[in-house]
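Hi,

I'm pasting everything inline rather than attaching a file, because the server keeps stripping attachments. The sequence lines come first, and each chain or strand is labelled.
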Amino acid sequence: ETGVTQTPRHLVMGMTNKKSLKCEQHLGHNAMYWYKQSAKKPLELMFVYNFKEQTENNSVPSRFSPECPNSSHLFLHLHTLQPEDSALYLCASSQAGRMLNQPQHFGDGTRLSIL
Amino acid sequence: AQKITQTQPGMFVQEKEAVTLDCTYDTSDQSYGLFWYKQPSSGEMIFLIYQGSYDEQNATEGRYSLNFQKARKSANLVISASQLGDSAMYFCAMQRQGAQKLVFGQGTRLTINP
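And the predicted assembly:
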């Protein structure tokens, strides 16, 4: 099993659809993250979960709804998205806590296209 | 606020040569960490190397080393003996003490020519 697995790898959806992105980590970590990577923009942190509890929401629109049922799984539920939401969505995990030398490990990402 | 600047949008290097990717940062924090990630065309962000602001030695990991100059606020990545598989986007990132947020730069696209 690879460290952080994301499904699906590619997703095309209409603006009225509802879909979910899934992330699973096999690293024994207890912090998980969603990042958005748009063309020509730096990666942007969206949400942080520590021990299943959401600890950061960086002003993300409510059309993105995260869910973390346990420390190994993270979902991003999508509904009524806009064309500007087309991007690569990356999931990451790390040891929880505020130690600096705990790198975040990323999955392959889901490339999302909104029609 | 923290900011990461990578001034080289693209770099082209001959195979087996060494390459330096530039990264400068701006922060008022005293304690922070600096990271480099590699992103191949497949999309995955691969962690390469970490440098703590209080580390006295430059970090090294195999062919990767970090040229850390704290007074100049720079953390350049050096790749020795480049290989074709090193072709990818490279991102410099910073994390402040007490936070989990990584702040990323715009990235540098490295192309290794045979």
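The CA atoms of residues 62 and 80 of chain B lie 9 Å apart.

If the labels don't parse on your end, tell me and I'll reformat.
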